[in-house]
Design goal:
heterodimer, A: alpha+beta, eight-stranded mixed beta sheet, five-stranded mixed beta sheet, 28% strand, B: mainly alpha, 72% helix
Chain lengths: 697, 319
């Protein structure tokens, strides 16, 4: 025992010393960062190889966060050394991945995502895009520039040797044998619970022209989903889905140390904090980034970025804001910064603190499919040279992508299976934040009387309302339109409607509680729904079953409104009629008692209690409550006044009704809106006629 | 010319309004059924709320917008045909030194109908090929510009390209306007001769004619932009009547520049293209010398030769 103990102790001490040295060097190279707390966790040991295990750990660094201790349960540590060839758009890299087995059981295989293999003609991503439609590339015709690849050249498991030959492509979702976006590695010696394992991988990634917010365009590149990334052990199994055109990502928290070697002239931005920049003799430079408590790493490079930097004082400390702008958009840098600061302010006040030390906002290459993407501490906006004041599209995108720092970045839900929990919840908070900053009805556009509000923009989901449920795997949606409509629009509308049911303050509290409780974890949909029930103290299953798990559609209508005199059957002589008319003119018509009816109808299958407000011509208003369980209901009144109008949901708290026009009925119609719209249409038709005649004859 | 014949502009405006009114009726009726009794539609009165409009267009009972666009385009095409039908009368009116009677206006229209159809077909082919080629080149240039790292190059190329296309197409317009004028004013049955004459004169006086046409087009652009600006600036969102009046006033004024261009064509024709009348020597009356009468019975007296002989009508040319 004594003989064996001495070398083990020696190795352990050496490993501790080396790790501490490495961490100190990293900290010293970051001028803006406070000295990190350099700690190492006591190494777990396998029974097989105690010496090797003692050297393995996940660093406890806090260099990139405003916290003196780690914020997440760190499962992975990626150390990547990559060289980017700007001419061929190829990255050659080595990756050292240290994985901490916190699954509670021995692991004998590890699946890895190879996302860039999605951009191949037979891959599931491309096949689905052709079938279901796509947000950017439609693949009408295959072109070489669409091709992307991610190839593992070699893979070694420390202590188990080179296992490259053990790699096997798998397609857990659709069995597509031509899909190479997931590769599985069986290892001869399982990793014990609590133990660490280290993979040494050499890989090559070829980026396509930008697709799905990754790749190159002209001399710009966005390096997203570019390295082999291990799956997530979740609910007792590996969760490592193929890359589909409607899915995003899912990964474990950890530490990233990434060296990027790029041409000297490139301006680089990336996740985490930059700790070192070094010029190389071959006209390249190597920039080193470090990230703590993040689950992905993305980077960008372009020789033409103009950089704007500032500091935002957050609740946990200073955040370095870095804006990488296109030269033609330099005048919009201030708008980017303003919306970023205002969004940060709202998120910190309403949901919780932003703990990272950096946020990089990238204004990507115009006309690329790189706009509007989120990675930890790194987002891309989307703008163009023409962005007039009053058109808030850039604000919308920056706000949305920043929101993902919370709903994806920190509350790291499974985007493959519960896309609504990141995109949808984020769309909901986007409405709240933009309403607060830019006003409810003008948060997208306010130009010359023409207005667009973000809140009602979400309502566009009604076109696909009955296709798919929110609680559905992202890759099982009917098509891309349905995915977009349900995941973004319906979720936001469902949560806005929920505000009306439990109260806005309670909903705000629930969202804050949810964030604080589940940040740096992988919550499920039930975690979210139960949090709302707990905070509100209400059983909301009737609502969640229909809105979240179901495809029910809501459409309530005011079916008819009718008033007539109670004594209508009494025939009046002409003289009496004339007297009545005179009385009316004198204001004596109140004497007539009217029987009034208001009928409501539930046209679709979503059952929900609703309010209706009935207005009478004497100014009186009556509110009625209907549980909505029957197909229709009729309210009747006997008053000395006729009904003027009836309006369902008078507080406008229901955002999921398919048809808002039939939610009200005014007895005396107002032709103005029709005339106004028709006049626009008439003008357009006449102008087109004249233009046609101008050129043709 | 244009000012002396203002009634033509009023007629064409009325025609334009009437046909567009038919084209808009389906839109009107469907919108009416949804909007008139809904409180939500009130938001359209106080501004242009896109969310409400989107909701409206998304209603299945509203019908598809493409169907309504087709109907509008159909009536726009009818206006084009009506313009082609009545244009000869306008040319005749502009060339006339007096107020052209209505029957002469319509006579000119009827007399030139078939010639105009032929002319329109030729113009359509020529301008269609030119448009296709120009936009093809434009697209190619745009693609090249899109490869540039200078983001502003693309909009610049696009703008300059469209302006060049506008200039070239204006030249084609001048050509066929002169041909149209020639067909009517020369009573030219051989349309091809008018087309060649139009081309010859377009090239001969290109700068002068192009300048006139471009100025008219600029005036049209100013009228359109100014009209829309005034609409937004001075008409409250609630005022439907105000919106109707200013929009129609804009469209009425917008017709003037095009009629101005046609007047330029007529004026040019009168100055440069009109074939001068062949001088006809007037016949001197000869004294009638009495012939010896051979027989006792006197023949019928000879008709008296008029003192002047009227100009022969212009010889029509067969095509």
């Amino acid at each position: 025992m004594q003989i064996r103990w001495k070398p083990v102790a020696l190795v352990a001490v050496l490993a501790l010393g080396l790790t501490a040295l490495m961490n100190r060097k990293t900290a010293a190279a970051a001028p803006q960062a406070a000295a990190p707390a350099v700690k190492t966790r006591p190494s777990a040991m396998t029974t097989k190889d105690a010496a090797s295990a003692a050297a393995l750990s996940i660093p406890d660094t806090t260099l990139a966060i405003n916290s003196d201790k780690p914020l997440s349960e760190r499962v992975v540590h990626y150390e990547i050394d990559a060289k980017y060839d700007a001419a061929t758009h190829i990255v050659d890299a080595t990756e050292v991945l240290t994985y901490h087995n916190l699954t509670g059981q021995a692991l004998d295989h590890f699946p890895f995502h190879l996302y860039q293999n999605a951009f191949q003609p037979k891959a599931t991503f491309v096949r689905d895009s052709k079938l279901m439609g796509s947000r950017d590339t439609g693949y009408q015709k295959w072109e070489d520039k669409f091709y992307g690849s991610e190839e593992i050249k070699s893979l070694e498991v420390v202590g188990q040797g080179d296992l490259t030959s053990q790699l096997q492509y798998i397609a857990p979702d659709d069995g597509n044998k031509d899909d190479k976006t997931v590769v599985d590695l069986r290892i001869p010696m399982p990793i014990a619970p609590g133990a660490y394992v280290r993979f040494k991988i050499a890989f090559q990634t070829k980026f396509p022209e930008t697709q799905a917010r990754s790749g190159w365009k002209r001399d710009f590149v966005l390096g997203g989903q570019w390295f082999p990334k291990v799956g997530v052990w979740w609910h007792g199994a590996w969760n490592c889905h193929q890359y589909h055109n409607t899915t995003e990502f899912f990964a474990d928290f950890g530490v990233y140390d990434v060296k990027l070697t790029v041409p000297q002239f490139e301006v680089v931005g990336a996740s985490g904090v930059m700790v070192e920049e070094q010029s190389n003799p071959d006209n390249t430079k190597t920039v080193t980034y470090h990230g703590d408590d993040i689950h992905d790493f993305a980077w960008t490079a372009s020789p033409r970025y103009k950089v704007r930097e500032s500091v935002y004082q957050s609740q946990m400390g200073p955040i370095k804001l870095r804006f990488l702008m296109q030269p033609a958009h330099w005048s919009q840098a201030e708008r980017h910064e303003k919306i970023t600061r205002e969004t940060l302010d709202r998120f910190e006040k309403w949901y919780g603190p932003y703990p990272y030390k950096t946020l990089t906002v990238v204004d990507p290459e115009p006309d690329s499919a790189a706009g509007g993407m989120e990675y930890p501490t790194f987002i891309t906006g989307d703008s163009s040279w023409f962005m007039p004041k009053g058109l808030y599209l850039l604000e919308l995108v920056v706000e949305h992508e920043f929101g993902h720092q919370y709903w994806y970045g920190m509350v790291a839900t499974n985007e493959f299976e519960d896309a609504w929990m990141d995109e949808g919840i984020n769309s909901y908070t986007e409405v709240k934040v933009l309403d607060s900053i830019l006003d409810k009805n003008t948060s997208i556009m306010n130009i010359a009387g023409a207005t667009i509000g973000e809140r009602e923009e979400q309502h566009s989901f009604i076109r696909v309302a009955d296709r798919d449920a929110m609680a559905q795997k992202a890759y099982e949606y009917y098509n891309a339109n349905s995915y977009d409509g349900i995941t973004y629009g319906k979720t936001a509308s469902v949560l806005l409607t929920l505000e009306g049911i439990i109260g806005e303050d309670t909903m705000d509290k629930a969202m804050h509680t949810y964030f604080m409780k589940y940040r740096f974890t992988h919550p499920t949909k039930e975690d979210f729904l139960k949090t709302i029930e707990e905070v509100s103290g209400k059983n909301l299953r009737w609502y969640f079953d229909q809105a979240v798990y179901g495809t029910q559609v809501m459409d309530y209508e005011v079916l008819d409104v009718n008033s007539f005199p109670v004594n209508w059957y009494e025939e009046k002589k002409d003289k009496d009629k004339k007297d009545d008319e005179k009385d009316d003119k004198k204001g004596a018509k109140d004497a007539t008692v009217y029987q009034s009816y208001v009928s409501l109808h539930r046209k679709e299958d979503f059952v929900m209690p609703v309010e209706v407000e009935i207005k009478f011509d004497n100014g009186e208003k009556v509110r009625e409550h209907w549980d909505g369980k029957s197909r229709w209901i009729r309210f009747s009144y006997q008053k000395k006044a006729k009904v003027v109008s009836a309006e369902l949901d008078p507080d406008h708290s229901v955002q999921i009704d398919r048809n808002d026009f039939n939610n009200s009925f005014v007895v005396e119609g107002n032709p103005k809106p029709t005339h106004k719209l028709s006049n626009y249409w008439l003008f357009a038709t006449q102008w087109v006629s004249q233009a046609l005649a101008w050129w043709a004859v | 010319m244009v000012l002396q014949n203002k009634r033509y502009i009023s007629w064409f405006w009325f025609l334009n309004l009437t046909l567009a009114g038919f084209g808009t009726s389906a839109f009107f009726m469907r919108a009416q059924a949804i909007l008139d009794h809904s409180l939500l539609s009130d938001r359209l009165v106080h501004g242009l709320d896109r969310a409400v409009m989107s909701n409206l267009f998304a209603r299945p009972e509203f019908g598809s917008m493409s169907a309504m666009r087709s109907s509008a385009f159909f009536f726009a095409f009818l206006f084009l045909l009506a313009t082609a039908l009545f244009l000869p009368g306008v040319f005749a009116g502009y060339a006339s030194t007096y107020r052209l009677p209505r029957e002469d206006f319509f006579r000119a229209c009827g007399r030139n109908l078939w010639r105009y159809i032929r002319l329109l077909i030729v113009a359509g082919i020529v301008m269609g090929i030119a448009t296709g080629a120009l936009f093809g080149i434009h697209g190619w240039l745009e693609d090249k510009a899109a490869e540039s790292t200078n983001e502003l190059l693309l909009p610049e190329v696009r703008f300059v390209g469209l302006f060049v296309i506008f200039l070239i197409m204006t030249v084609f317009r001048i050509w066929f306007d002169l041909a149209e004028a020639d067909v009517v004013l020369s009573d030219q049955r051989a349309v091809r001769k008018s087309i060649w004459a139009g081309l010859r004169h377009t090239l001969r006086s290109l700068v002068r004619l192009l300048a006139s046409y471009v100025v008219a087009a600029i005036v049209a652009a100013i009228i359109l932009v100014g009209g829309i600006w005034a609409w937004m600036r001075f008409v409250s969102p609630e005022s439907v009547r105000g919106a109707f009046v200013i929009s129609q006033l804009t469209l009425l004024l917008l017709l003037i520049p095009r009629f101005w261009q046609r007047a330029v064509a007529v004026s040019y024709w009168q100055q440069r293209m009109m074939v001068p009348a062949v001088p006809v020597r007037s016949l001197e009356p000869h004294p009638i010398e009495p012939q010896p009468v051979a027989v006792a019975t006197a023949p019928d007296p000879m008709p008296v030769v008029p003192s002047t002989i009227p100009n022969p009508p212009p010889a029509t040319q067969e095509s």
